[in-house]
UniProtKB/TrEMBL annotation, chain A:
Protein name: Transmembrane permease MsmG, ABC transporter membrane-spanning permease-sugar transport
Gene3D superfamilies xrefs: MetI-like
Ranges of residues in domain ABC transmembrane type-1: 73-263
Localization: Cell membrane
Pfam families, alphabetized: BPD_transp_1
Keyword Cell membrane among record annotations: yes
Keywords, alphabetical: Cell membrane, Membrane, Transmembrane, Transmembrane helix, Transport
Family per record: Belongs to the binding-protein-dependent transport system permease family.
Membrane topology: Multi-pass membrane protein
Transmembrane segments: 7-29, 77-98, 110-132, 138-158, 184-206, 244-263
Length: 277, 293
C-alpha cells in the first residue's frame, strides 16, 4: 500500500513537473537549432530531447550580429545592481530607525509607510512618468532608477526584522565607542546578512524582470534594459527567426537561472516572507 | 512636549529616514497628487501651456466611454477566472508536495521555476508555443487527435489563453506560501482526528482548510489586486487585441496617457482605478472577516 502510494506520488508529481519544465527546455534546446530543425522536430520527442548532431551556435551568432544584446544585458546588470545597493541602504536605514529609535512623529511616519503599502505602484505609473518627465529626467539613468530605490514593503520588512534584533549587542558596540551608524554598519548589518541577501536577490530579480516602467522611462536603444530590448526584437518579425528569438530569451534568462540555482533557499524564503507579513 | 526625547537620537533617526521619506514623497505621494490635479484638466502633454481646468468632464466621460467599459470588463473577466484557477492550482500543488519523501525538493523547485522568469520572456515564449500554424501546443493537440486552436489570434479565446498562461507562471509562488501555511498547522490535530476515525477528506475539510484560512485571505487579496493590474502579457502577446478583447484598464491608461499623450483623461482613469483597487482590497478583507464571525 505504501509503495503504491509512493509510486503514485512520483508519477503524478513528474507529470506535473513536465508541464512546467517542457516550455523552458524547448526554449533552451531550440536556441541551439536552426529553424528548419526546430520545425522538423516539433511533433516528435526530439522537440525536448537533444540530439547532439543537430545543435549549433548559429542562432546566437546571427542574433548577436543583428542586435547588441550583450549591451542590454550589461545595462540590466548595472541597473539591477545599483537598485539593489541603493535600495538596501535606503530601506534598511529607514526600517532600522522605525524599529530602534524614539523620536517625535514616529507612529505617524510608520502609519504613513503602511498606508503607502496599499498604493498599487503600477496603477500610478503614468503620473510617476509625468513627475520624472517634468524633472527632465526621461531617458536618464537617474530618472529611470531613483524612483524605485524606495520600497515601502521592504522598509516594513526591515522594521519587523530589526524589532527582534538583540538590543544588548548594539549597546555593547556603543560602549566600545561606535556611533549609531557605526554600530548599524558593523554589528547590525553583518548579523542580518541573510535578510539583506534575500531582500537583495528579490530586488535584483524584480529589477531585471521589470518591463512597464523601463518601456516608459527609456526610449533610447543603447540605454534599454534587456526586457525592453527583448520586446523590440520580438516585434522585428522580418529579420528574426524562432531560433534567434529563443537564443535571446535564453540569454536573458540565464542570469536568473544562475541566481536561482545559487540562492534558491533565499529566494523562496524571501518570497514567502514578503508574502506572509 | 518633546522633553522625553534625546535630541541626538532624534537627529540620527531622521538622518536614517531622510532618503526614504524624501523618495516616497517625491515618487509616490507627488504622483498621486498630480494625477488628481490633472484629472480635472484637458492636459495634452505636447501643449502644456494650453492646459485648462474642465471640472468633472473627464470623470463623466469615463462612464460613457464604451472602450473603457470594454477594458474594465476584460479586466474583471481576467480576475474572475485567474484568481480561482491559479489559487486552486497552487493549493493542489502544495498538497501534492507537502510530504517528506526523497526528491520532493526537485518537484517544488520545478513548479516554482516559472515564477522567477520575467513576464516578457514568458509572454514571448508562449506566443511562439501557441502559434496557430506551427506552435508546439497545436502539434501536441493534433497528435492527440484534437483539432488545432487559434488561441491568441481569436477574440473569443485570447483572454482565456492569457488566464491559463498567467496561472501557469504564477501558481508556483502561491504554492510556496500555501506550503508555509500547511507547515504551520499543528500536526497533533491530524493525529486526534485519526483517532476519532476521520478519513482524509474530512481531515482536509475540517482541519486543513480552516487552518489555511488566514493565508488564503491574504492570497486572494494579493492575487486579485495583482490580476487587476494585468498589462505586460497582453502588451507583449496581443497588443490588446484581437478587436480589443484583451485590452486591460492599465493598458488603456498606458495607451491614452503615454502613447497618445492625453494626460487629463488618463489621469482621471488613474484616480478611479487606484481608488477602485484600494476599495476592492478593503472589501475582500471585510468579506473574510464577516464569514469568520
Amino acid at each position: 500500500m505504501k509503495v503504491i502510494r509512493k509510486t503514485a506520488f512520483y508519477i503524478v508529481a513528474s507529470l506535473i513537473a513536465l508541464q512546467f519544465l517542457v516550455p523552458m527546455v524547448w526554449m533552451i534546446l531550440s536556441s541551439f537549432k536552426i529553424d528548419s530543425v526546430i520545425y522538423r522536430d516539433i511533433s516528435t520527442i526530439y522537440a525536448v530531447v537533444p540530439r547532439f548532431g543537430d545543435l549549433t551556435l548559429k542562432s546566437y551568432q546571427e542574433l548577436l550580429s543583428m542586435y547588441n544584446v550583450f549591451r542590454n544585458v550589461l545595462n540590466s546588470l548595472i541597473y539591477a545592481s545599483v537598485t539593489v545597493l541603493a535600495g538596501l541602504t535606503v530601506n534598511s536605514l529607514a526600517g532600522y530607525a522605525l524599529a530602534r529609535f524614539h523620536f517625535p512623529f514616529k507612529n505617524a511616519i510608520l502609519l504613513f509607510i503602511i498606508a503607502l503599502m496599499i498604493v498599487p505602484v503600477e496603477a500610478i505609473i503614468l503620473p510617476l512618468y509625468l513627475v520624472v518627465h517634468e524633472l527632465g529626467m526621461i531617458n536618464t539613468l537617474a530618472g529611470y532608477l531613483i524612483p524605485f530605490f524606495v520600497n515601502v514593503m521592504n522598509i516594513f520588512l526591515f522594521r519587523q526584522h530589526f524589532l527582534s534584533f538583540p538590543e544588548e549587542l548594539i549597546e555593547a558596540a556603543k560602549v566600545d565607542g561606535l556611533t549609531e551608524f557605526g554600530s548599524y554598519w558593523r554589528i547590525v548589518v553583518p548579523a542580518s546578512l541573510p535578510m539583506f541577501v534575500s531582500v537583495g536577490i528579490l530586488t535584483f530579480i524584480g529589477s531585471w524582470n521589470d518591463f512597464l516602467w523601463p518601456v516608459m522611462a527609456i526610449t533610447k536603444s543603447d540605454l534599454m534594459p534587456v526586457q525592453v530590448a527583448l520586446n523590440a526584437i520580438f516585434s522585428d518579425t522580418y529579420n528574426i527567426f524562432t531560433s534567434h528569438m529563443m537564443a535571446a530569451l535564453t540569454i536573458v534568462t540565464i542570469p536568473i537561472i544562475v541566481l536561482y540555482a545559487l540562492f534558491q533557499r533565499h529566494i523562496i524564503e524571501g518570497a514567502v516572507r514578503s508574502g506572509i507579513k | 512636549m518633546f522633553k522625553q526625547y534625546k535630541w541626538q537620537e532624534v537627529v540620527t533617526a531622521y538622518a536614517f529616514l531622510l532618503m526614504a521619506l524624501l523618495l516616497a514623497v517625491l515618487f509616490i505621494v507627488l504622483p498621486i497628487g498630480k494625477a488628481i490635479n490633472y484629472s480635472f484638466t484637458d492636459y495634452y502633454l505636447l501643449k502644456p501651456h494650453e492646459r485648462q481646468f474642465i471640472g468633472f468632464d473627464n470623470y463623466q466621460r469615463i462612464f460613457t466611454d464604451d472602450l473603457f467599459r470594454k477594458t474594465f470588463l476584460n479586466t474583471v473577466k481576467f480576475v474572475v477566472f485567474v484568481v480561482p484557477i491559479q489559487l486552486t492550482m497552487a493549493l493542489v500543488l502544495a498538497l501534492i508536495v507537502n510530504r517528506k519523501v526523497k526528491g520532493v525538493e526537485f518537484f517544488r523547485t520545478a513548479y516554482f521555476s516559472p515564477a522567477v522568469l520575467s513576464l516578457v520572456v514568458i509572454s514571448i515564449l508562449w506566443t511562439v508555443l501557441l502559434n496557430p500554424d506551427s506552435g508546439l501546443i497545436n502539434e501536441v493537440l493534433t497528435a492527440l487527435g484534437l483539432s488545432p486552436q487559434p488561441f491568441l489570434t481569436s477574440s473569443s479565446q485570447a483572454m482565456y489563453t492569457i488566464v491559463m498562461i498567467s496561472a501557469w507562471s504564477g501558481c508556483g509562488y502561491q504554492m510556496m506560501i500555501f506550503l508555509a501555511g500547511l507547515s504551520n498547522i499543528d500536526s497533533s490535530q491530524y493525529e486526534a482526528a485519526e483517532l476519532d476515525g476521520c478519513g482524509s477528506l474530512r481531515k482536509f475539510r475540517y482541519i486543513t482548510l480552516p487552518g489555511l484560512k488566514p493565508i488564503t485571505m491574504f492570497l486572494v487579496i494579493t492575487t486579485t489586486i495583482q490580476a487587476f493590474k494585468l498589462i505586460v502579457q497582453p502588451m507583449v502577446m496581443t497588443g490588446g487585441g484581437p478587436d480589443y478583447s484583451t485590452m486591460t484598464i492599465l493598458q488603456y491608461i498606458y495607451e491614452y496617457g503615454y502613447r497618445h499623450r492625453n494626460i487629463g483623461y488618463a489621469s482621471a482613469i488613474t484616480v478611479v482605478f487606484t481608488v477602485f483597487l484600494i476599495v476592492v482590497s478593503v472589501l475582500i478583507k471585510k468579506l473574510f472577516r464577516e464569514e469568520k464571525a
